[in-house]
Write a structure and sequence with these properties.
With 50 residues, the protein is mainly alpha-helical. Helices cover 90% and strands 0% of the residues. Keywords: Membrane, Transmembrane, Transmembrane helix.
Amino acid sequence: MISYGCLAILFLFVALKLIIYYIHKKRALSMTHIDTELLALLNRRSEHNE
């Protein structure tokens, strides 16, 4: 009986992790967006240092 409880908890944990993974995957930024953000930060930083 205890093993069924452990299996149920494990199943719920895996299901929760999968849901969180797919939510984060949906919100992930594209590589071009990340590149433009990094370039903007670097340009601001280099202009600030001059």
